[in-house]
């Protein structure tokens, strides 16, 4: 059976989703986006001015790819038109100010809702957990960093979140990787004590807007030290792995390089310390959708990289199709996304400060 999708929003992410859906055999039967309807029409896609008009195309599900601030409005509109509609909503699920509204909509909606957080479907995270498991590591430290220089985007008005700061873009990725590592490794990765939060406000850098980066540190119930970092100004807090940028800042003119890593440090049964680092794609010098896992003894040389084929977005959308057709679980439930968003919101409100003990998603 060919599923039929109504795509709401045809910006960069909407166009990317359309291509991925086609590759999966899903038919995009209509696009709802008054701003870029001409672009969609030029690409041969039917265009509707409103969701009500799009409903006449008979979609099996809706894919919401509009800016975050409009997610709740579109979700409410579609749910009002069809109380059993299946939906994909791009991450973050909504703005923090809309969390109560979205929780209320989800409580009464009869359809299935998947959040488009592709890092819940990345194979890198499970590869890192499996590698640490084969080494028999007792994990002492977890690091997740998602950083890129987005100066040109920020100055153009993209990736600016006055509520969450840098966490508004990469924050959901950080928590998705952390949650999936915890599930794969069988550990609880969430805070058990106070959480330290520090923002990057760099008055010496004209291309680093306020709250352009954030570092978060806490310990889990098992005493694992967790460090989460992100920067939209290219500052790298944790230059992990053999491919880490040096010096640890990505240049403004480099619009492709990212530093997106999951690092695990621990000791094996003999007491030797090891480091395992997964570098998410894109990786400099490798084809797109190719990631790496790197291993070394502490202080030693890195072993040759293990490459991992990882088109996490295509895999996430394929898992979404499986869920909508009753062949698999929800890869990114909205309730979990709201819990993650609430934690990001709590972190973003601190400067720098400590969250109370036991603040977990």
Describe this structure in words.
With 361 residues, the protein is an alpha/beta fold. 30% of the residues lie in helices and 25% in strands. It contains 10 helices and 15 strands. It has helices spanning 12-23, 37-42, 51-55, 71-81, 99-108, 123-134, 151-155, 167-185, 312-324, 334-348; strands at 4-8, 27-32, 47-48, 61-64, 86-90, 113-116, 138-148, 195-200, 213-219, 225-231, 258-267, 273-279, 290-297, 306-309, 353-355. The strands form 2 sheets. A 9-stranded mixed β-sheet has the order 14-13-12-11-7-10-9-8-15, with helices on one face. Strands 3-2-1-4-5-6 form a 6-stranded parallel β-sheet, sandwiched between helices. Helix 8 crosses helix 10 (334-348). The longest helix is centred in the middle third of the chain and has 19 residues, at 167-185. It is globular. It starts with a strand and ends in a 6-residue tail after the last strand. Mean pLDDT is 89; it is low at 353-361.
Summarize the structure in short:
With 361 residues, the chain is α/β, with parallel strands linked by helices.
Mean pLDDT: 89
Radius of gyration equals 21 Å
Total number of helical segments? Answer: 10
Name the shape in a single word.
globular
User: Which residues form runs of ≥5 with pLDDT under 50?
Assistant: 353-361
Describe the secondary-structure layout.
Blueprint lengths: L3 E5 L3 H12 L3 E6 L4 H6 L4 E2 L2 H5 L5 E4 L6 H11 L4 E5 L8 H10 L4 E4 L6 H12 L3 E11 L2 H5 L11 H19 L9 E6 L12 E7 L5 E7 L26 E10 L5 E7 L10 E8 L8 E4 L2 H13 L9 H15 L4 E3 L6
Parallel strand pairs: 1-2, 1-4, 2-3, 4-5, 5-6, 7-10
Antiparallel strand pairs: 7-11, 8-9, 8-15, 9-10, 11-12, 12-13, 13-14
Helix pairs in contact: 4-5, 6-8, 8-10
